[in-house]
Design brief:
heterodimer, A: alpha+beta, 6-stranded mixed β-barrel, B: about 250 residues, Rossmann fold, ABC3_permease_C (chain A)
């Protein structure tokens, strides 16, 4: 297009001349681009964790594991499918034996990993422990030391940053495995996420091989890292297979190519409505700033027109502004976003406690974001550009005010869109969020089309208002072309804020949407669960609790089964409840629902005194709360050690079925003698204050919590009382966003209105208006924009907010109570609706008044002198 | 000064006036609120001719100028610029005409403040699609003709009022334009600077341009080849000015 270069030059120079306006526009476009680029890079940037690899290579060329008995095994490249005999007897290869079958010059170091139970000063923990020399070059890249030093001798360990607690910090000595081998923590490190990241990495020789369980190629429990002078090929792998070694070779995996590419980022249909909403908001946000620029430069545009600039030229010049700012803001924003993601990586890693996979900037997505920024700039400059091309240069140059082409917008189209959008929002309620966003967008576009009509309606109310407000309202209507985008911009922001606020508040109101909000014990009960505490720690906890409770309040002791050596046993108690898939992971008591205790426990579990149940307990029977699972008077359960070697063993007990009052707070209860008779020990895992005995006051519970926390970090204290939803964070987060958006946009729009109203103010000045009238007029202009926008916006934001809040629990969620019983959150739990009145008040009352106040304060009260114009 | 430069840039006058206005009527507004700015004005300006338009406020001087250059359209009558009838032209073609045939100079604030003087002068050429370097060469040539050769890279804010007006004249002439429309170009200047501007306009006329100058200063009108008096939208007198005495 002819004159594009000249247009861009004018834009560039003007941008430099009006620095504040330029900075404002750059921020309005650049900030969203930067935020999007940051989030996209931080979320999509780190590559996928190699989930098929059991152990990170680091600098090693291969990982081998093998035993003489495994000769002639076959495997796939990942050693996921290995044909081997998981028999008991294995004679593992020694390092020397392996070296001889590898390429000459190869070097190997032993690695071992397994789930190990360890004891810290605050109780037991179970987690992955790796035994490898981190100082060896082959380990490089699998970790980053952040504190202390690397282990240099057997008995030394580094702790994973993710596991760092006061009881697992440098200087602390832990005891690992059944043999209670001491491990002194000498450092802290971030570990690679490949395989199961370890809690601890210990120096070779710290733990016996048996601590890592049997030889297992699928777990890479005991193997060797290989440093080979040449790549380990598939032929090498087959050769080593014949000897009885399973091999994972870097060269083979690299040759196999990457896994099926996982989809990176949300799909287009999913993200389209959000992108559109974002775009609309940025366009409406930046639009008034561009309009302001056009207004200030109207004389310049007229001059260009006089010198032969065609309407197309003028549009080009005005659009060049959009292009220039769009490109500059997007490029800078994208660069800042990507750079920030890069710089934030160490912080993110520290926060995560792990090394994140290598960051590859998702350029395509970032470039799309930047392109959207440019589009936003161009769209925002479009309306001012069209206005510039339509202005009459003679009128501008002679200082005559142009009678703008004021349209009443497209009220019919607006009404149709609003009705359609609202209907769609109601229908989409409870469906995917994308649908709600799309229908909200339709409503929003309808409201934008309706805004001029709304502004006109305001004028009818203005007749009885005092002069400044009356003037502001009439002026707003007369210049609908300018007022409408400003109102639409503020309104869009308010709609979004209200919708988020309503959804948020509703989610809070429908509280037990989250597992931690469901009752985990009878109402009023105080419970302290700590399956990992040692008896010594329990003694201290018990006395701390007793100190806070009045004398004579019984403490119900809940015990669970352990092996004779003290390893907790997980009990799989049969259940016939519908929709319950057996939950195999540990609950807070790690019991599986089989509790050991006496009469007081039984009373707590059943929520009543039941002599028949007490009698059954005393007879050595298991009291089973779901009688349906009893077969021939017997309860058959499976007991599995939580850590260490050993398979599950069945245990059959005589049983009595007793239904509890209400849901009941265990699956089955047995007496301690029954456990002992069957060859099991028991440990305390929970203390309960039965609300039937004593209702613990909240203050007491808080004191107990504080005391227990000082003793150990491995116990949970909770008082079962309903808590009022805490909505302060809604107010803070949304309030700040609302203040910035509403005040900022109103301010820009008001400056625009005040600049255009200058001739009227001159006239007022000439007829004797006091300087404060100007302040009042500007305040009035701000009030009209902010009030109209926020009232409409709040009303329009309710529908999508409620629709999104209806999106209740879409699939059953199971979680575990401390007594080991699963609770299912039912599908489609009745949704609740709540309106964040504080936020609404802020939006409808406080912010418009603040906007008006700001308009008055920041206006120079000196009235302009009428200026002679060229005639 | 450039008095001795040969006017090789402009074609020699060929007898046909550069602008010919015939029975031009311009009515602003409609019905009872209608204002008759021009009521049947006929005026020719030939190449090499400097025509001064005088008259009281509201007599239609500026309207006449706007219509002559295609910024405004007559309600009735015809305007021909270099032989082309403006009535039939689309706004885009009128803009093209302003880029190639007619240039305006106003009382004040003629220049785009964010462009250098040379860029201001080159603007009509660049808008016309001329490459930047070529447009700049042309602009510098015209700037030399108005005595601003050294100030091409300054910004308008750095210039005196008189220099700014000269730059505006240069811009109005760049690209072989033959009609210069000046609306009170001396209005914002002191006497001395005003005199200089009139001399520049006179030189440009002598070099072959057709200049239509709106002024209310008889002193400056005296430099014209012809003075046209407007009153209530009509030409009430037209006289050859006493150039010799004024000069």
């Amino acid at each position: 297009m002819s004159g594009l270069r000249a247009s861009l030059r004018i834009s560039r120079r003007n941008a430099r001349r009006s620095k504040r306006r330029s900075a404002l526009i750059l921020v309005m476009i650049g900030l969203p681009v930067a935020l999007a680029a940051f989030v996209l890079t931080a979320v999509l940037g780190p590559g996928p964790v190699p989930d098929r690899q059991r152990y990170p290579f680091g600098q090693a060329d291969a990982l081998v594991i093998g035993a003489h008995e495994w000769a002639n095994l076959s495997q796939d490249a990942w050693a996921e499918e290995v044909s081997w005999e998981p028999g008991r007897k294995h004679t593992p290869f020694t390092g020397a034996e392996i070296t001889t079958v590898l390429a000459p010059g190869s070097r190997v170091i032993p690695v071992a990993q397994g789930n190990v139970r360890y004891l810290t000063p605050e109780g037991y923990g179970i987690g992955q422990i790796r035994q490898v020399d981190l100082r060896d070059p082959m380990s490089r890249g699998t970790f980053r030391l952040t504190d202390g030093r690397l282990p240099a001798a057997p008995g030394e360990a580094v702790v994973s940053a993710a596991m760092l607690r006061p009881d697992m910090a440098p200087g602390v000595t832990l005891f690992a495995g059944e043999a209670r081998r001491p491990l002194r923590v000498v450092g802290v490190a971030l570990f690679d996420l490949t395989g199961t990241p370890p809690d601890l990495t210990v120096f070779p020789g710290s733990l016996p091989d048996t601590a890592f369980g049997p030889m297992n190629p699928l777990l890479m429990s005991r193997g060797w890292l290989v440093d080979s002078p040449r790549p380990v090929t598939w032929a090498d792998v087959r050769r080593l297979n014949a000897r009885g070694l399973a091999v994972v070779s870097r060269a083979v995996l690299d040759g196999a190519g990457p896994d099926e590419p996982s989809p990176r980022g949300p799909s287009l249909p999913q993200s389209a409505p959000w992108v559109a909403i974002m775009l609309l908001e940025v366009v409406l946000l930046a639009g008034p700033a561009f309009a302001m620029g056009r207004l200030r430069r109207s004389r310049e545009f007229a001059l260009v027109a006089v010198q032969g600039g065609s309407p197309a030229h003028l549009r080009t010049i005005a659009l060049a502004d959009g292009l220039l700012f769009g490109v500059a803001a997007s490029v800078v924003g994208a660069a800042l976003g990507v750079g920030a993601a890069w710089l934030a990586r160490p912080a993110l890693e520290r926060r995560a406690g792990y090394l994140l996979p290598a960051l590859t900037v998702p350029w395509a997505v970032v470039a799309t974001t930047a392109a959207l920024g440019v589009v936003a700039g161009l769209l925002a400059a479009l309306a001012p550009a069209v206005a510039a091309s339509r202005a009459d240069p003679v009128a501008v140059l002679s200082g005559r005010r142009e009678r703008g082409r004021e349209r009443a917008g497209r009220p019919l189209l607006g009404i149709v869109l609003v009705v359609a959008g609202t209907a769609a929002t109601i229908v989409s309620g409870g469906h995917e969020l994308g649908w709600i966003a799309t229908s909200a967008l339709v409503t929003q576009l309808g409201l934008v089309a309706l805004t001029p009509a709304l502004v006109a309606a305001v004028a009818r109310l203005a007749a009885r208002l005092p002069l400044p407000l009356r003037f502001a309202a009439r002026d707003a209507v007369r210049n609908r072309g300018r007022t409408a985008p400003a109102v639409a911009a503020v309104m869009t922001a308010v709609v979004a804020l209200t919708a988020v606020g309503v959804t948020w508040q509703s989610r809070l109101a429908q509280k037990p949407a989250y597992a931690q909000d469901y009752p985990k014990a009878p109402a009023g009960a105080l419970w302290i669960a700590g399956p990992d505490l040692t008896p010594g720690l329990w003694d201290r906890v018990r006395s701390a609790v007793r100190e806070e409770l009045p004398g004579g309040v019984p403490l119900v002791e809940v015990r669970t089964l352990t092996s004779r050596s003290g390893v907790p046993m997980y009990a799989s108690v049969p259940d016939t409840a519908p929709n319950v898939s057996r939950v195999e992971w540990s609950d807070a008591s790690q019991s599986g629902g089989l509790l050991v205790g006496t009469d007081d426990l039984l009373r707590y579990v059943l929520r009543r005194d039941d002599p028949r149940a007490v009698a059954a307990l005393h007879e050595g029977k298991a009291v089973v709360l779901n009688p349906a699972v009893i077969r021939d008077g017997q309860l058959r359960i499976d007991l599995t050690p939580v850590a260490g070697p050993g398979d599950s063993v069945p245990l059959t007990l005589p049983a009595a079925g007793v239904r509890a009052n209400g849901e009941g707070w265990a699956r089955a209860v047995v007496a301690p003698e029954v456990a002992a008779k069957n060859g099991y020990a028991t440990v305390t895992t929970m203390l309960v204050v039965d609300p039937a005995d004593f209702r613990t006051p909240r203050a007491t519970a808080e004191r107990i919590t504080a005391k227990v926390e000082r003793i150990t970090g491995k116990a949970t204290v909770r008082l079962e009382v309903p808590e009022a939803p805490d909505d302060t964070i809604i107010l803070i987060v949304l309030g700040i966003a609302a203040a910035v958006l509403v005040l900022g946009m109103t301010f820009v729009a008001t400056m625009l209105a005040a600049a255009e109203a200058r001739p009227d103010l001159e006239t007022m000045s000439a007829v004797g208006a006091a300087p404060r009238v100007k302040r009042a007029v500007v305040a009035g202009q701000a009030l009209v924009i902010a009030l109209l926008a926020s009232v409409t916006g709040v009303l329009a934001g309710l529908a999508p907010g409620i629709a999104a809040a209806r999106q209740g629990v879409s699939h059953p969620v199971a979680f575990l109570r401390p007594d080991g019983v699963t609770t299912i959150v039912p599908v489609g739990a009745a949704p609740a609706f709540a309106i964040p009145w504080a936020l609404v008040g802020l939006l409808v009352v406080v912010l418009p008044l603040l906007a008006a106040l700001g308009g008055a304060v920041f206006t120079r009260s000196r009235l302009p002198l009428p200026r002679r114009r060229v005639t | 000064m450039t008095e001795n430069r040969s006017p090789d840039r402009l074609p020699a006058p060929d007898g046909e006036p550069v602008v010919r206005m015939t029975g031009v009527v311009r009515v602003h507004g409609e019905g009872t609120g209608a204002v008759h700015a021009l009521r049947g004005v006929s005026l020719d300006v030939a190449a090499g001719e400097l025509v001064a338009v005088m008259g009281p406020s509201g007599s239609g001087k500026s309207t006449l100028l706007n219509i002559a250059g295609g910024l405004d359209r007559p309600t009735e009558g015809s305007v021909a610029l270099e032989g082309r009838e403006l009535r039939d032209l689309a706004p885009k073609q009128l803009a093209e005409l302003r880029r190639r045939s007619a240039g305006y100079v106003f009382q004040d604030l003629n220049l785009v403040p964010s462009l250098t003087v040379a860029e201001n002068v080159a603007l009509p050429r660049e808008l016309d699609g001329v490459r930047t370097a070529k447009a700049r060469r042309e602009a510098l040539a015209v700037l030399e003709e108005v005595g601003l050769a050294d100030l091409g890279d300054r910004f308008p804010d750095d210039l005196s009022g008189g220099q700014r007006q000269r730059a505006a004249i240069a811009r109005a002439l760049v690209g072989e334009r033959r009609l210069l429309l000046a609306d009170e170009p001396t209005g914002a200047l002191d006497t001395r600077a005003g005199d200089e501007i009139i001399q520049v306009l006179r030189q440009r006329a002598d070099a072959g341009a057709a200049v239509l100058l709106v002024t209310h200063e008889p002193r400056y009108a005296a430099w014209a080849d012809r003075v046209v008096f407007l009153k209530d939208g009509q030409i009430v007198d037209s006289a050859a000015a006493g150039m010799e005495t004024a000069r």
